[in-house]
Amino acid sequence: MARTVADVIVHSLKELGVQHVFGVVGDALNPLTDAIRTTDGLDWVGCRHEEAAAFAAGAQSQLSGTLGVCMGTVGPGSVHLLNGLYDAAKSRAPVLAICGQVPLAELGGDYFQEVDNDLLFRDVAVYRATVTSPEQMPRMLESAVRAAVTQGGVAALAVPGDLGEQELSDDRPTRFALGRVVTRPEDRDLARAADVLNSASRVTLLVGRGARGARAEVLRIAELLSAPMVLTLKAKEGFEGDNDFQVGQTGLIGNPAAAHALDSGDTLLMLGTDFPYREWYPKDCRVVQIDAQEDHLGRRTPVEVGLAGDVGASLRALLPLLKAAPDRTHLDDARERYAKWQQGQRKLADPALERRPIGKLRAALDNRDHDIRPEALAAAVDAHADEDAIFTSDTGMATVWLSRFVTMRGARRLLGSYNLGSMANAMPQAIGAQLWAPGRQVVALCGDGGLSMLLGDLMTIKTYRLPVKLVVFDNRRLGMVKLEQEEAGLPEFGTELDNPDFAAVATALGLTGIRVTDPADLHDGVRRALSTPGPVLLDVLTNPEEVAVPGKATVAQGWGYAVAKAKELLPGREG
Question: Kind of pairing, strands 20-23 and 43-46?
Fold first, then answer.
């Protein structure tokens, strides 16, 4: 029996190892969703919004290192995929987006719901095409998947509604041929890098996600060079736990020890990172950079030696050329500063702090009763979550508190919109993560603003009985925007959120809802939420006035904050 276009696509994805397809059904997708319905081993996950479907597919791709798949029907359904697809593209996650399109005969005629998919996905996709004949299958599918996987990005394949059910006259097995190239720099370039590092007296490492597959080599070079290791947020997974060289993150969410380790070094070794914030790089410093992406070399800071290649393969070739640096003063100083900062952070994370006189005074000045410190909430989650938990975090203050108080020890994994910086990512990414790893604990650290954006997909969690744990930092604010306004000397404006009782909403939708309003109940609430079977939403009222001080706070930031607070206290628009 001849196969249809839809059969070829669905059967090929199953053979590739894809287990879930996320999306919202629509008439242009009917042949495809019906093929999924009749195919064992490939499940349709119906979401309430296509954006959530794209985030979930991207999450599975990042966790598995393989292809994620989502679908959106013609027109608006495809448009709604865009934000989640941009997140996948910025994260270099291979995702295939299969999009419905108007019937073939109507293409280009401004038909109902028609959009130009080629134009729509031009900026986000490494490959985009519209199937116009059954004879283009499976070649066009092979090209789309190969582009997504080998280039680390999004492939958008549009299928007109009347084409999916058409049969192939010349069918053949699908062959993807997805080999991975592992390269290392040439010997002369490695020798130049070794000369720079061997002549240094204070080397600091800046380690990113691109080095996660080379943990042993990175630890070895840190030991050999007596170098402190500053981690990007994405490098927390893989390098934060059991590491005597790491000193946390830099940047606005970072700490003073990491900033000092960068500024006090005379040589910087960048490994698998495209850390974008140029103002946080050291000045007057020699730089060696290793990255698999050639266009990353020297993009953020001037680089003396740029090595294009896989980080692990490059370090294995570089290590024999390096001399040991016996002086550990630079490393020991960085680690001592980091330990001192951590000690101070632990005090901030003590729920009892709000019950002490200083805490009560702060609450009175802020005109609030028992709001909980967000630091304490993040630390409680860290203490009670499983050692192999998968964490997702919403962009904004939830990520700040995760970066400082949730440790990626053991086999823990971490996901977030850390390149695109989208809101509303944590919950849909947790959906994809939980379906990918049904036996593991998945914890989403949600901002109240982010959760509200895609609140309807709580029903997806309920429908598929996913035991996701949603922890809501309910400060009734768009907290990061509030902080940015105040640091610029502006009074808070437009950031206040009139939130519902999220726990009651969750209960009404069929999830377990838990609400914590008193610091004394925090640890019991977190423990109960993480141990309760099935999906749980933990709504914790946190202090909206809590400030995350960056690693290098400036006088201008402090003055701006003081001016903003003065303006907020004065009455009226002219205050």
Answer: parallel
Instruction: Give CA 455 to chain center in angstroms.
Output: 19
CB 537 within 8 A of CB 458: yes
Contact 118, 130 (CB under 8 A): yes
Q: What whole-number distance in Å separates Cα of residue 13 and Cα of residue 162?
A: 21
> CA of 193: how far to CAs of 130, 262, 307, 375, in Å?
46, 19, 8, 41
Burial 84-117 (b: 16+ CB within 10 A, else e): bbbbbbbbbbbbbbbbbbbeeeeeeeeeebbbeb
Residue 557: the pLDDT is 78
User: Predicted confidence band at 355 (pLDDT cuts at 50, 70, 90)?
Assistant: low
Contact 428, 80 (CB under 8 A): no
Query: Of 405, 200, 342, 212, which is closest to residue 282 (Cα–Cα)?
Result: 200
Contact between 275 and 211 under an 8 Å Cβ cutoff? The reply is no
* 3-class secondary-structure state, position 60: helix
Angle at which helices 522-531 and 374-384 pack, to 10 degrees? Answer: 40
Q: What is the pLDDT of residue 233?
A: 97
* CA 43 from centre of chain: 24
d(CA 213, CA 349): 32
Q: What is the CA radius of gyration of the chain?
A: 25
Tell me the pLDDT band of 259, cut-offs 50, 70 and 90. very high
Q: Where is pLDDT greater, at 487 or 49?
A: 49
Question: Tokens in use for 116?
Answer: 């130009």
In three-state secondary structure terms, 422 is: coil
Cα-based distances in Å from 207 to 7, 222, 552:
44, 11, 19
User: What residues have CB less than 8 Å from 518, skipping those under 6 apart?
Assistant: 370, 372
Angstrom CA distances, 532 to 267, 471, 522, stand at: 50, 13, 15
Indicate the range of 104-113, 274-283, 494-503, 557-566 predicted with least confidence.
557-566
Report the C-alpha gap between 403 and 408 in whole angstroms: 9
H-helix segments, 437-495? 448-453, 458-463, 479-487
Residue 29 is predicted with a pLDDT of: 97
**pTM, to two decimals:** 0.95
Residue 575 has pLDDT above 70, yes or no: no
Other beta carbons within 10 angstroms of residue 149's beta carbon come to 22
- Write out pLDDT tens, residues 429-444: 999 999 999 999 999 9
CA triple 231-240-477, angle to 5 deg = 75
* Alpha-carbon distances of 23 from 102, 459, 538, rounded to whole Å: 18, 14, 27
